[in-house]
Amino acid sequence: MKNLKKRIISWIKEEVKKSGKKGVVLGLSGGLDSAVTAVLAKEALKENILCLVLPCESPQEDLNDAILINQIFGLPIKTIDLSGVYKKLIEILPPANKIAYANLKPRLRMLVLYYFANKLNYLVCGTSNKSELLSGYFTKFGDGASDILPLGDLLKSQVKELAKELDIPEKIVNKVPSAGLWPGQTDEKELGLTYAELDDILRKLEGKKQLPPSEKVKRVKDLIKNSEHKRQMPHICKIG
């Protein structure tokens, strides 16, 4: 894991240098992935990062955990509460389903991240991992919008191991993963299987290993297939 840590830190430095930008801005949610990304970015860029805590009707525990990470690692941080803007949008938009309402939250955060990226001449550093990317567990043009993805080739289980190498508090490492989209919402409930199960199946699929038919294998294959559009640029109608 020490070599992995060094590789990612070097990669972040190189990506920022190649882009001609001055640093990175990222969302600090209080969860594992954002904590790991923030610590790696801090080691890579020193003071040229900004961590935005962007509560949007978020659980108090998430805010407390984001503050904890900030206190331990001394991250440049700014908090902007988007709850009022979110409520106003719900008021002026026509009624919709739970998913439509929930996806407004990461998309609002994306607006603010890119606002500060433009203001500071920074890149937006995403915090998604490989398990989320392959299964489509992210909001298109929300938390899926970024310029660089340091954890994008690491499964959730690998991010956990890296977190231990970085001395991320156990409270954060063992926290039940949740996007905080609504009360009681968790990643694994939405995915329909645990991250351990998801990672195991993804590893075997990538290794072209034969998997015995099961509902969980079918579930993962369906997640990959149905989220393919999220991993592609918009299709263009070619003329002439």
Based on the model shown, name its key terms:
single chain; 240 residues; alpha/beta; Rossmann fold; 4-stranded parallel sheet
Number of discrete domains = 1
Low-pLDDT runs of 5+ residues are none
The whole-angstrom Rg is: 18 Å
- How helical, in percent, are the residues? 40-55%
Computed structural class: alpha/beta
| H/E element sequence | HEHEHEHHEHHHHHH
SS elements, strand count: 4
CATH topology: Rossmann fold
Give a description of the structure.
The protein has 240 residues and is of the alpha/beta class. It has one domain: 3-Layer(aba) Sandwich (Rossmann fold). The protein is built from 11 helices and 4 strands. The protein has helices spanning 2-19, 32-45, 60-73, 83-92, 98-120, 130-135, 156-165, 170-173, 187-191, 195-206, 215-226; strands spanning 23-27, 49-53, 77-79, 122-124. Strands 3-2-1-4 form a 4-stranded parallel sheet, with helices on both faces. α2 packs across α7. The longest helix is centred in the middle third of the chain and has 23 residues, at 98-120. The model has no long low-confidence stretch (mean pLDDT 95).
